[in-house]
């Protein structure tokens, strides 16, 4: 059980690292030609964007714009935020897949065989990386749009539902 939890955590963070590296390597260097420019500009100055305005996104993006003094790098900072939010979404997806796979394959303490652990972790790796490299998710991960942040908060909410009172990440990290 403890080895499974350790491997689940280690492989989850490796998956996060892969996704973060790929997304940060392929971010838009500036802004795209649609709502991204508006969201980046309104986040930088904390103004009101078009409805519904996405205030949580704008507050988080404003925080990321504080990492540069160069106005020409503001868009890249917001795009980095989207890349990291998407990488965390992939991490939570991995842990969600392994959670469900373990509920299916592991019936009791004796069920933690090497084959079951490999099957569970393999399902998580394949599922998370397959989603990480889908066209629409990757496209939204590399630009300053609200979809990456929305996916991140959806993943956290779903993880919280799975683990009851605690978020899935906190549950796994504390029990590891």
Tell me the layout of helices and strands.
Layout: H1 2-25, H2 35-45, H3 55-65, H4 74-105, H5 114-132, H6 135-141, H7 146-163, H8 168-175
Helix pairs in contact: 1-4, 1-5, 2-3, 3-4, 4-5, 4-6, 4-7
Provide structural commentary:
- The chain is an all-alpha fold and 176 residues long.
- Helices cover 74% and strands 0% of the residues.
- It has 8 helices and no strands.
- The chain is elongated and about 55 Å long.
Tell me briefly what this model is.
By secondary structure, the chain is an all-alpha fold. The chain has helices at 2-25, 35-45, 55-65, 74-105, 114-132, 135-141, 146-163, 168-175.
Q: Give the beta-strand count.
A: 0
Kindly report the average pLDDT value: 86
- The count of helical stretches stands at 8
Overall shape: it is: elongated
Uncertain spans: none
- SS-based structural class? mainly alpha
Q: Give the fraction of residues assigned to helices.
A: over 70%
Q: Distance N terminus to C terminus?
A: 10 Å
- Main beta sheet, described? none
Write the H/E string, N to C: HHHHHHHH
Report the oligomer.
single chain
Strand content: under 5%
**Radius of gyration over alpha carbons?**
18 Å
